[in-house]
Hints:
The complex is a heterodimer of chains A (195) and B (462). Chain A has 195 residues and is an alpha+beta fold. Chain A contains five helices and three strands, in the order αααααβββ. Residues 1-51 of chain A have low confidence and may be disordered. The longest helix of chain B is centred in the N-terminal third of the chain and has 45 residues, at 2-46. The mean pLDDT of chain B is 86.
Amino acid sequence: MTASRHLADRGLSDAVVGATSRRGFLARVGRVVLAAAGGSAIAAAVATPEAEGFHFCGHTYTTGSCPHPTGLPRIDAHGFPLRAFDGAPVDDLGRPIDAQGRPVDAHGRVLHDADRVPLPPAPRTRVCEGAARAYGFRAHIDGAWYRCCNGHVRKLTDCCGYVRNRINGDAALTGYCYAGRKVFCVQYFDTKVPC
Amino acid sequence: MVGTVGAARRLGGRGAFAVTAAAYGVGSLAGALSVFALLALAGTVTGIGRTWLAAGAVLAAATAAVDLRGGRVRPQIRSQVPEPWRRALPLPLATFLYGFLLGTGVATYVPAATAWGLIVFGLVLGDLHVALVVGAAVAAGRALPVLVLAAATEDGAALPALALRPHALRVVRLAAGISLAVAASLVLADTGAAGLVVGSPAGDPSAAAADLAWEQPGVGGFLRRGGQTVQLPGDDPAVGGTLVAWHVGDVVTIANRATLAPVLVVHVAGAQKLAVSDRWLAVRALRRGGARLVVQQVTAGAPQHGVAATPFAARLGRPALDGDTLVYSASGLRGSSIMAVDLPARRRHLLRYSRSDQLLQPSLLGGRLLYVRLTRCSQQLRLGDLDGRRGRILLTLPPVAGQDLGHDRDRTSQGARVPCGRRVRATSRLLWTSALASTVAYVTVLRPAAGRATPTLVSVKR
């Protein structure tokens, strides 16, 4: 998706929010600032709508998801994979894990072997880096955009690289990538900021 | 039975009918669950399923074939439910007892051969949860036609019509036969892929020549020689060369494998997992939450050398020895590797490495490396050369985690990706420690738990 396409697709409110969020401000922050400035009508207009029609909430245009251990490309603030439905951190095998990377059960308790020793941690790779490794390019995280999804602000991040084609196989677009890099695939981080 | 249950409505109205019908349904369920729970219990206690699982599946498939062909059901049971109950007992109690008898599936006339197939399955699978589900299905199959017909007709007028049109029963038998045939083929396929169960609970195998040693959690180490199994006076046994080793706490005993006479006793603080060859002893020791790998020559007074150490115990795998070569696995968040150490030269070699898969619990014999590789989409027991050029998969299990749709439910699938390409069913079983013998490979299949996991020892042909 290109930046111009983004702007063209959105109304005034989105354009305002989009222009700020490109540089890292949350949509909610923009909304609060505008409301404080006295423009309640504008604030209402800036309410971040859920993008519809693409394969996960907040995503616009057709670039495919980055390869992720459990499917939907949900990541944490550092780019590591989270299970989409509950936000549990997962390793490269898709298992939920604790802070040390040890596999845990559905209740978050560390799984043990027959000697009561915790199971060994499996590798855990940043989702964009995993995509880059699998497809042979160097990963870059450049810009991001924000949408309101499931009551929270979602940060959507392009996984960028010096690539000709995106993960879909057809020509890659500039999107939120800089310095000649293009979008290879997309991922998202759900913030705790309500919207 | 339709007439008996339906009679309640004529005699006592709708309320009485509801009570009688419910009693019949509960009785059917109780009968079926009792029978299949007992079968599962018998299968578990006797361990019959471990040996006869494939044979049971073949037998079940044969009964399915009988129903698919519409053949006679053999063996057949000629007895009927006791008729006097309906006159002597309150109707709800009588129908409960009738339901109980009919729910067992084989107390009276057996309408479909698959009933026998299900009983065989219940026994050989030895799984209570599966047995209860099958029992509930049998109960539903037995009770629902009676209840529906009893509710639909007051005087049983539908019965003659049903008796004159046997197509309904034929269709039911066909459906049952197809279902059972599919289940039997799945079990057969799984049996072929899963290898033979050596013992459960049993794990951490160690093999040398035709001998096999393993650990039974909470009980101790065992050694099988020449078809005879003996319990060893310690835990975590290992065999290699002509020796066997075990430990009691920090005291490690190395003994002659034929006589079990001690050859050497050494002290290794935190000793937990052992490997032994004619010249070397290797010990994984746990201390203060971490683990270290210690080796020592099998000579009195020989010094101990550290080979590897980690601050997190789980990251260092069990050691294995073949002659002068030690192999072990190391797992971490940044990658997983299998290392070999040439002990006389103290040279370390990287045998396998992955930044996304987990490589676990290797064993070595004659230049062939056996190890577990956990990938995102499967678990593999792999046998290959040391240099990794040639290799094959001896055993495969489903992956350890499931996957989502790759897209939000209310959205298009365009652009969605799932890691394993299609819907996969994850398993709670985990391929774990391995041992390599000349003709077979052994692997522990673990059911990890928050407490202590349950291991099962499985053998697979090389």
